Amino acid sequence: MWVVAQQQIDPGNLARVPGTSFPGHFSKVMLASVILGAVAYWLMQYGVVKNKVMNWVGMALFGVGIILAFAAVPSEDPTALIRFCFSVLAVSGAMGFVVAREPVHAALGFATAVLSSCGVLFMQEAYFVAAATMIVYAGATIIIFLFVLMFAQQTNLRAYDIKLTRPWLAAGIATALVITITWSVADEGEILPIKIDTTRVNSLAAQPLSDNGTPPMPTKDMSGKQVASFVPSKTAGLGRAMYTDYLMAIELAGTILLVATIGAIVLAQRPAEVKS
Amino acid sequence: MWVWLKESWPILWPTLAAIGVILAVVPLLGLYMTFIERKLAAYVQDRIGPNRVGPFGLLQAVADGIKIFLKEQVIPDHVYTTLYFLAPAMSLMTAMFALVVMPFGPVPTDYEGGFRFVVQPGNDIGILFMMAISSLSAYGIIVGGWASNNKYSIYGAIRSCAQFISYEIPLGLSIIGVIAITGSLNIEKIVEAQSGSILDWNVCWQPLALLIFFTAALAETNRLPFDLPECEQELVGGFHTEYSGIKFVLFFLAEYTHIVTVSFLTALLFFGGWHFPGLPNPTGGTTLGMILGLAVLLFKVSMVVLFIILLRWALPRFRFDQLMGLAWKGLIPMGLVHLVGVAIVLSLGLPKHLLILTAALPIAAAYYSSVKFNASMGRWNALESGVRKTSAVSYE
Asked: Which terminus of chain A is more exposed, N or C, with fewer CB under 10 A?
């Protein structure tokens, strides 16, 4: 049952969260830079093009793509410049991750991409998500990758590090995906409000945050019913939302992780010796 | 851009000033910690220690610094150059970066403006941010070990991977108790919650958390009981075998920065930070109060630093299986028990000082292991004498 939050409902205050409004030439510029990036990946990927000069040309094209993307950065906001730098680092790290032949270099590229994404998250004041990403991915997962890589192979590249199986398909899908995402982000639209059962005890939507948090914004959903939509702006609000409104999802995720852990233990166990 | 700079200058300059203080003080502190360490080591080993350069040998640290800068850069043939040079910088950068949210003096929870003793006041996730950054500090060691392209360095790097991943878990578990009862991740608020009498200090009612936190944090600093990535007897120099001169020093500056971080965190989270019974709350605003608070905090921190340095000369190094056993079989179960205790106290509304009962757990564990050790030694002695007897018979 969806119930109205405690605030006065103002029909003019519907949760129409506008998409970021980009300048008009934005989409075309971004499209050009995505395609340039795809071509650059082609040329950089050793094994597709077996020519050092062409690899350098690819790197130059990648640089041109980045400079093109720079044109879309709003000049009046200096923090946008820092965000852009983080984004460039993230994309370059990801490119390095895909292109690098040495597995350790690839892992470090991955780490760069993750950390730079965390930088973008920090710039948008999503502190908790950024810190959690840093701890889980950069601090644990990639270090385990490096651990395994250093154990498994210390010299000599294996065949599967040099040979690509389906580079055309991968690059095509990736380009289509990035173009779609860019298109949908650049298009001004609205983010639908999240439906929260405000009758639940301690629900974030039911009580306005006391210290500096944004109070829940009462809105109408698609069918005309009134629901509370909110953006948890503070870590405390996030915690409250996680353990009241999204309790089921959190518990399910925890259960999946537990099952995975038990599965890993079972898989790693050596078969018991048969007693004769 | 200039307009923006002009407008945001009142917010910008305290940040820049705090960054400046950290950048200026931490390397100096690292330099002098080597001196204190040498002096303490000398006293422990019944020597005098450095006493020639300057009064009481105080300028020895400066002389060392000059020597380091003037040393020749030796770059071995077989290293992967880029990462080889990047590794010490990464190591120091991650160590310094964790200091961003750490208050190094009294900081009021409702910060308004002007200079303050922290780079970013009122960070919502303070302690989590520090954990996130310190989880990255393994990268410097791993990359350095790998880029050295030498089997001892790689062994050091591999050990450091395993050690960092294992000891992050008890570190997190031990802090959760503090966070849960304070109700905030903000370090200033955690200190503010300990502002009452000495009984309000976290150490007085969750000593088990302090024990786990301190052990795990010490493991993250790569100091002696936990210095397996660089142990000289087994791995030459571990991850820094191929590093010399200023590059070597950057690694060690990072290590000393870690010690500073750990000491500050111990003082802030468990020993009441800038509060001391009898002194007024320094965050009220008077200058004298602020200076007194700063002195109290620095005193507590220097005590912890001295304790860490003394530990180096008191404890032998772990074997690798013992290191892993300590984390996975000792600290993590104890941390879980402590967490359950905190949850019970919080959900039933019991007085929080009941948590002190959890301190019985390490005492019981220590007693149990000593009994077991004695028993095994008795068995071993019996076996040994038996072997000697039989061998004496059979060889004659």
From this structure: C
